[in-house]
Write a structure and sequence with these properties.
The protein has about 475 residues and is of the alpha+beta class. Helix 3 packs parallel to helix 8, helix 5 packs across helix 6 and helix 9 packs antiparallel against helix 11. About 35% of the residues lie in helices and about 20% in strands. The radius of gyration is 22 Å and the shape is globular. It contains twelve helices and 16 strands. A hairpin with a 5-residue loop joins strand 8 and strand 9. The longest helix is centred in the middle third of the chain and has 21 residues. It has a domain of about 110 residues: Ubiquitin-like (UB roll) (Roll), CATH 3.10.20.70.
Length: about 475
């Protein structure tokens, strides 16, 4: 992956003031990533926003706005849930402070006159909310920085794209959807005209939003798309990813198409969110592989940490019931915690060459929150560097035929049992965060527990 750091769509605060004065920008979207990695927030008048920022700068205040605490303590339906310490009926679902990150001002070319700012969530005391995804990632970045390491990240995203609007898909019960490509167009360059138009639009708006892509391709399933992003700063990579998902859904509507980032939108299909990672010190890649081919000690320690810790943190990388239906043999998603050199069947893949060598974590699905998946990965690497667990043997050949390996959890319930009782999770994130995300997983499991599915009816309606 390249190290292109050109962000032509990003603005300084002075740039924003100029754009607002000229009338080019009228609206500010102030957004906090929620537990699912979705952008939640408010539309603000741009002039009023600037006045507030100016006053805060003069007064030394921190909070720029407020949002209800349940934004960080809810499910996909935005239901007020019980059992969270951060929010609940017993606390009246109060507000938390929202502090804009002024380094994240970016234009949204698909929404003329609008800029987006990512923001951080604070308690009224001014302290960060530990369970907020941006806070969790920043904490793990800082822990590695304390060891002298900088983190660089590249994200590789897969999603499915179907014909028709989201409203039409909903009316059809999300059944019998028609992919935008008629068959497998993996690595194809002769796409249908409507798909080429979508790609052109997506690439243009992402470049204009300071979120340029490295590559776009059709993947191995009909209608499956893969987008890779340039290598760079970890927090910026996740911020950019949330803009990308926002843009994909917005442009899908314009093109009468519906994207889905489900990990497994149908039984024989999986979409991933692969994390490409390396550690740097003094401008040098610690994972660089010399010509003789021996893996650097730091890379081996990082891999050992990932393989020993990720089994305890899986709910942060696979948060839904559906997430676990992607982990099937010969699916290009891992089924065991293994590592290999350029082996796409493994959880951890050693990839790249020379100074560009790095690790690819293939466990997260398309439904993963990038902040949480990356935070979990960095916590695992920290453990590897400090506790130095033993690195298992390299997997050679078919990773799905490994005997005696540690299997990926079969479902969210199994993953939750490891997570909530894990000393490693507690040491990395603290008890408040572990309880918060364990509670979220319990609610997800309970929601599904008594629901009757279409497949159950198909299998048992006439044969029970």
């Amino acid at each position: 992956m390249s190290q292109d750091n050109q962000h032509t769509g990003c603005l300084s605060l002075n740039d924003l003031k100029t754009a607002v004065d000229s009338g080019a920008v009228t609206t500010v979207l102030l957004a906090v990533p929620n537990m699912l990695g979705q952008l939640k927030g408010k539309r603000l008048d741009a002039r009023g926003f600037l006045q507030t920022i100016t006053k805060q700068t003069q007064d030394g205040a921190k909070a720029g706005a407020e949002m209800c605490t349940y934004v960080l303590a809810t499910d996909v339906d935005m239901e007020p849930l019980e059992g969270f310490e951060l929010a609940g009926w017993e606390t009246g679902f109060g507000d938390f402070g929202v502090v804009p990150d002024l380094a994240t001002i970016r234009r949204l070319p698909y929404m003329p006159g609008t800029v987006l700012l990512h923001a951080d969530a604070l308690h009224h005391s001014g302290l960060p909310i530990d369970a907020a995804p941006r806070t969790m990632l920043r904490t793990q970045i800082d822990r590695l920085k304390d060891l002298g390491w900088d983190v660089k990240v590249g994200l590789e995203s897969e999603f499915m794209l179907y014909h028709g609007t989201a409203q039409q898909a909903h009316a059809a019960g999300y059944r019998a959807l028609e992919p935008v490509a008629p068959h497998n167009l993996d690595y194809a360059l002769d796409h249908p005209v409507e798909l080429t138009d979508f790609f052109d639009d997506l690439e243009n708006v992402l470049h204009g939003a300071g979120t340029p892509v490295e590559a776009v391709k059709t993947e191995g399933a009909a209608g499956q798309i893969e987008v890779t992003f340039p290598y760079g700063d970890a927090l910026a990579a996740c911020d950019a990813y949330t803009v990308y998902k926002h843009a994909v859904k917005h442009l899908g509507g314009r093109h009468t198409m519906t994207p889905t980032f489900m990990a497994s939108p149908r039984t024989d299909l999986g979409s991933g969110l692969h994390l490409h990672l390396s550690l740097w010190r003094d401008g040098r890649n610690a994972f660089a592989i010399p010509q003789e081919g021996d893996l650097p000690e730091t890379m081996q320690e990082a891999m050992a940490g990932l393989l020993s810790v990720l089994p305890h943190l899986t709910p942060l990388l696979a948060p839904h019931i559906n997430s676990y239906k992607r982990f099937r043999p010969r699916s290009f998603a891992p089924t065991q915690f293994t590592w290999g050199r350029d082996n796409r069947g493994c959880t951890i893949r050693v990839t790249g060459h020379g100074d560009g060598a790095h690790l690819e974590n293939r466990l997260p699905g398309a439904d993963a929150n990038p902040y949480l998946a990356l935070a979990a990965s960095l916590a695992a690497i920290h453990h590897g560097l400090t506790d130095r667990p033993e690195l298992p043997p390299q997997t050679r050949g078919d990773a799905y035929q490994v005997a005696g390996g540690l299997h990926v959890p079969v479902d969210l319930g199994e993953a939750l049992a490891d997570f909530r009782s894990s000393k490693i999770a507690l040491d990395a994130f603290g008890p408040t965060v572990v309880r918060h995300y364990a509670n979220a997983a319990r609610h997800e499991i309970r929601w599904h527990r008594h629901r009757v599915t279409d497949t159950e009816r198909e299998r048992g309606f006439l044969r029970a």
